[in-house]
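Case study 2.
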Amino acid sequence: MALGAAAVGVIAVLVFVDLSPRVQGDFFFAYDDPQMQAVREVADAFPGGAQLILRVTVPSEDVAGHRKEIGELTDDLLAVDGVEGGFSITTVDPENSPLFQRILRTPDPGATNIVLQVDGTDPELLLPRIEAVVDTHESDQLSIVISGVPAIVEMVRRSLYRDLIVFSSAAIVVFALLIGIIYREVAIVVGTIATCLVSVSATLLIVQALGMGIGLLTANLVTIVFVLTLSHVVFLTANWRAALGTDRPTLIRGALSKTLEGSFWSMTTTLLGFASLLIATAQPLRELGMAGMVGTLTAFTTAYVVYPSVLGKWARVQASPGSNFRIPSLRRGKGTLWFAVLLFGSLSFGLPQLDTDPSLLAYFAPGSELREGLALVDADGGSSTLDIVVSVPGGGTVTSPEAYPRLDALQAEFEADSAVGVVLSPTLIVDHARTIPLAGLFPVETLLDLASSDALGSIALGFVTPDRARVRYSLRMRERVEEPREEIMARLTEKVEEAGLHTETIAGLYDLQAKLARLIASSLRIGIGGLLMLFLGIALIVARSGFTAVAMWVCLGVVPLATLGTFGHARIAIDIITSPAANIALAIGADSMIHLVIRVRRLAARGVSSPWEDGVEQIGRPVMSASTIICVGFGIFILSSFPPTQRFGLAVIVGTIVAATVALVVLPRLDTVIKDT
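Prediction:
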């Protein structure tokens, strides 16, 4: 039954589910997401699509000597479906144009840019077309690097999709091998993997049916659901193997009765943790919350519907050899407790240093061709776009004799900022229009009208509104600058005010990265804080003791604090792909503690003199088994060439180690000390 259900589930997923992560809009935000409001406003007021920048390098410093090759490349790129227009040294002469000097030239005399204006074609479709042209023209004479928002987002999507397939599959194989080593029984190995596959398949199918699909935050849903299911299965297996007798129905009922209460409250805790994300304003967080809730319910249901059939029919009936994980007398455990307080307390001090806003470069491996190419573009003139829309305070036109000099001064101020690369604005467009013979005799208003016409490609329409009330400054920001984005944008806004102008809107990839950082931090606070608040009530129900409930609550709080604090001390960024690891660590910690406390409570009710020692001995083996399987399985993610996947695997490993240590070492001593005190 289990194998058949797993096979059907996997086939159904392959047929009906699109596993490719959905990356819409700019930098992981859907176009209708509230965070994209500023982007929509700028797009409506200043028409123009996204841009791709191709950095072309020649062997010598003689770019002009390769005009023929660059011209052929430009012509083929402009013919690509989805490209609306573009510029290169063969379509416009940058020598006398301040505008195109900034767009096409680079600090390297042996390199030049080709800038393409693209429409709303999905980057997943557009970028392969561009790459096909590049592959045709790239040679010893031309080295080409592609950058721009559509290219960056598509490269991230590809890396995530590749790792989702390769490393998730590899992790499942590693899980199976470890389960075999730990339990040494084919029926349990096959049953566990089959049950987890059924759970994962059902979750993916339900999520697809709900119309959510796979997004950036839900891309690790496979591993999350696999681990949630595995946790229930490990505790069921431990209770089955600890039972004595030959009557299989009686044994399976006994294992279910011992495990069900703990599994139910563990499931409830995890479910509420994901549910707390539904109140977030950002669509990616809400999708993670909904998908996580579906996965949590599916994992619980599958573990108690599918796996018992394997145990009851195929698993060997035998007694567990028992756990070797015994703890010394808890009455003498204050030294260990103080050591844990100092250790985890020192780790938590890394929280203020936690980086939830990594550079674009941090999404690609150091030394990789992709990262080095992006770094070159960033060094030339910035790689992350930022749009700043300004107006004249109190109204009026920006072309007036009083206002226009302020625009020119602001252009110079922006260009002088160390975090800013190339800056484009109406003042450069006016300077470009003045390169036309006799155009210098015309006023600014007339020159902007000329630049808004077909004669100059309507280029001014993307930088000034028809009523001349607002203008757009298009900045390319340098990602290598380590100063926080919020501080940089605040400084740029201050420059606008100092120039005697007013900031209307800030948008673009750079701004979205800052918003994404806030959302990641918010998701951690909402998810962790909400779960801790809810867990206190569940702990009271499970422990039926206020002292033990407080001890459980404190210990669960240690798990995310120590895990994230470790990342802060190590200066390891928490990006959008890594952040779900905190939910996994919390689920593991809550699961272990709930099962342990329920076992201790039952032992105490039976009059056992040392319930904590006996409880740890009985629960220690499944906790350590599950932790070992998870750590080694996720350890394979560290071998990925995609840094966010590496960080995700590392975060799960650290969280799992902390959770197991807190549950088996700290919680028993803390509860004993609290009650003794």
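The chain has a mean pLDDT of 85.
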